[in-house]
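Order emerges. As here.
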Amino acid sequence: MAYKILWYSIPSLHDNTNGAAIHSKIMLEALARRGIEVKVLNALVGDDVRGLEVFNRIAQQIPNAKSRKFFQFIDSGVEYFVANTKGHVSNDVTNGDQNIIFDLYVQLLDKFQPDLVMGYSGDVFSQYLRHEAHVRGMAVAYALHNGLHRGFSFEDCDLVFTPSESSATMYRDLDGVDVKSVGQFIDKARVLATRRDQKENIKYVTLVNPTPEKGMAIFTKLHEVFSKKHPEIPFLVVKSVGNYAVLMNQLHNADGSKFLVGEHATCAEQIKVAEHTDDPRLIYDISRVIVMPSVWHEAWGCVATEAVMNGIPVLASKSGGLPEAVRDGGVLLDAPACTQRDYRCVPTDEEIAPWVEALERCLNEDWTERCAQSAEENSLDHSIDRLLSYIEPLMQKAQQEKRPLESSAYFSAKTVERRKAAYAEQAKRLAEQQAAQAAQQAQQAQAAQQQAAQPVTAQEVPVGASATVQPGQNVNLGSSNEPLIDIEGYGKPKVVAQPVAVAQPTLTRVKVHSEVKEGSKSSKKNRVTAKRKNKKK
């Protein structure tokens, strides 16, 4: 019997500003290629609403998308159910949004009957949903993608896993939680640059996602000092979340004084800025070195591993899982102490000196072999194998013990019986419809053959033979591929549209420009231009 996995998280896995979402999606697609049936329940929620742009393309393929309570579609072999919530960031999710999510979730438990419920979301509502699955005898696994779950007990989870051994050790030591490390999930084919043969374009020292936590203070000072020695080497930041100009203006010196004044501001303006892109290959097309000076706990550091897969050396801090992400594909240093204490504190010339020396190494040495070996150690297949070694025994056990329509933490015993009866009645009607349809098709086939003067026997076209289900038709409720039933008020079920395949996203180009200081005339002009463009849209 094939295994079945339901992924649940409020944040959408199609949010391309969320590293955890990106690599969880890759993981699920890899599991689907291993023969596991995978379905996903998300909300229309992202870390940054810009990361949800893909749903504009998806909605174009789904009839009456705006009026639907949820979107249902297939992407890369995985079926998605995305609640069409009013709130599009986690803090804006409403009680009504939660009701939609809950209805979809319990119906998937009832009908899809997964062996394993996997996902993340640390809120109390999501914790209760995991408890519901556990009460029904299904295995539950939690995917830890950061160091922000301190104090959680994960009581209803049979497995808690994280990419790096560093993160697993932290949770074991500080909270006594048995967390397993499995490696990160990166699809090499999706991140390999296609234009690195154009050597004239490979010139940037690059920081992706310039935020205080990611070490923008260190990167800014590194640029300032390094550019005095090597003015010919350009530096680049690629936006992801947050307002880059505002964050830059929050940087300060150790004494608390503002950093971006005088020559510091002039130098910072020389850093090139690229807008967010959902195609990381465009970044690796033009980068000589990737810098990741993170000062918070990095559960992994996916950009580092992707860079190494492209043969690009990485200059990184030793934060969290970054040493495992980089391995021998770059240089690792301790972040300056002042910035570790205060993420917005810019280090001094003396404190940044080791980073300047390390960057020179990254630019001048040949990293080809070291990057190739490190990339192999962090391959997708290795990570999937490690994950399967933990979840396969859980799914085997759940197939014997799960009771999807026999017990519930939320519903009363009588309600469970009524829901089960409603599903059985609907299954009966759909089976009758399928049988009638098959009989009709058999009769039509007999008639066609008779017209062609070809004798037909009952054995050749048996009445009641099962028919291939065409798009738009109902299928048996016992199948895991049927449309979801939307039970409005737990009344009569209503069948929604069949899944719609998702087209490949349109790739955008990285546009590089110089970022100006917030409050300057150029900045105000840019904001006015942006507002005019938005109005036109």
User: Anything to note?
Assistant: Residues 413-451 form the longest helix (39 residues). The chain is about 40% helix and 15% strand.
